[in-house]
């Protein structure tokens, strides 16, 4: 069955704001990766589960839970171990990179909470993702025109890379993210987001033959433990919706 793409005027306002959060996240991460080591940038960005959990507890009266806080804490440690690296980046500005990575924490956390706690919760996931990505594209076109301009890719291999990033890594993942937020909530979704560096480690080792260290092993173990703790907690309280 197809999804409804028609939304109201008030919905457009909500979508526009969420698009700003999402575009800010992507843009700030690009700046961070250009100025500091990717491992450090990733570690800072993956503090967003803590920001989400604390915001939900402080401002949306979500019940405080030691299990959730413990899971957030150890998932952050796991993400830090998986994304560990030197902070310096050749030719980059460390202060700019750190500030950009910090901004990504709050912009992505705001996006996750906004999807669940705003009118966006009633918008079909595919439609919401389409409009958010559409606005994001418009923001980047405007930004490109105001800076170095826009240069279309002409190489076939480059287009394959672009399609790989656009379809599975962006469209599919964002639709899945929106559905997850609506079904299990912002906090649980954000903790599962810590599996992203774990996925990067697995792909790096299996596909690109990168090294697998004790830090990687401990990080994976901590993240798996965090996810297990949250699943047991949510199942025990009956809060996970089908």
Automatic annotation (TrEMBL):
Pfam families: EamA
InterPro entries: AA-Vitamin_Transporters, EamA_dom, EmrE-like
Cell compartments where the protein resides: Cell membrane
Keywords per UniProt: Cell membrane, Membrane, Transmembrane, Transmembrane helix
Keyword Cell membrane assigned: yes
Keyword Heme tagged: no
Domain of life, source organism: Bacteria
Domain EamA residue range list: 8-83, 96-231
Membrane topology: Multi-pass membrane protein
TM region positions: 12-33, 39-59, 66-83, 95-114, 126-146, 158-178, 190-208, 214-232
Protein name: Membrane protein
